[in-house]
Amino acid sequence: MHRFRWLAVAAVAALGVSTVAVAPATARTRAQSNGISGDEIKVAGVVDAQAPDTGIGAQARFDEENAKGGVFGRKIKLVEMANDNGDPTQDEAAVKRLVQQDGVAAIVPVQSVVFQGGTFLAQQRVPFFGWGISTQFFKNPYGFGFTGPAVTPSPVKSSNTSWAGALDAMFRAQGDPNGAKGKTVALIAEENDSGVTGLEENIPPVKAYGMKIVYQKASIPFATPPSDYTPFVNQLLTSNNGKAPDVIIQLNQVNVVIGLSRALNEAGYTGVDTNAVLYDPRAVGIAKNQVIYTQFDVPEDTANPNMQKVVTALENAGLGTATK
After folding, report:
1. CA pair distance 40, 71, nearest whole angstrom
2. Where are the alpha helices (H) located in 68-191, listed in sequence order?
3. How many CB atoms lie within 10 A of CB 305?
4. Residue spans of the chain under pLDDT 70
5. Rounded to the nearest 10 degrees, what angle do helices 54-67 and 305-316 cross at?
6. Which has the closest alpha carbon to 149: 198, 184, 89, 102?
7. Are 126 and 99 a contacting pair, CB within 8 Å?
8. Pseudo-torsion of CA 40, 129, 252, 223, nearest 10°?
9. What average pLDDT does the structure give for the chain?
């Protein structure tokens, strides 16, 4: 089992806002009274199978706040980390159970690509906090994504250019004065909402930096990832008029990235294989020949005092050295 500690790091960083977001309980707003007593704030998280460490990071942040007296004198209690197993139906059912039966004051952290509970939580006036990789964070006043709503519904009206910009900077650093301009690009994603909108969001920035898109498909099965990636590898490596593209952008979850990248390596692909999910200092062997894009700072950045606070919180929680 691969446990990716960066999700724990992300949880600690993200929860800096959530621990000050709960006001004193009153009788006027259900979101403030449900799950909140005179000395406790009861919360629960929702994750998918790819995010096993998220609850560890959240607990580390809550421990840190509780040691300082909690929020308005109330200690934060994380009662459960519900796993939706990557199933949207299970996800929504878990969210409803946590609110209606367990009476939590907030869903925190949220780390699931199939998160479907945002509409229900808004109706119940229950806030939720996490990584906004679901459309449920978009224009939802009760949803707080630490990177904003990273996945917006179609049609996408604006796009983040940082990933394409990072590729451009990388090529320039390697000595190409044109950067990414003129490079051929294949984008591949899974058959789900995040995959479809992920393609839609990343196409404009890629074009804006002068790259030529030769392949763009949300074609990898989501519910049951393939055991054999050969058909996808063959499509990708012949997408540039029978040749391999300069860059392959994967908009996939961790297990798919691992499988597809391994297959690309075995097929001899020497271009840029990039994704946004497989950062981890311990995943160097797994991430062979990959270029990892992160949407947040990393533990190795010792020059950033805020990141070092995150690392310290994880180490104080007994997780050892957070960067190893």
Report:
1. 9
2. 88-100, 118-124, 162-173
3. 8
4. 1-33, 52, 319-324
5. 90
6. 198
7. yes
8. 60
9. 86
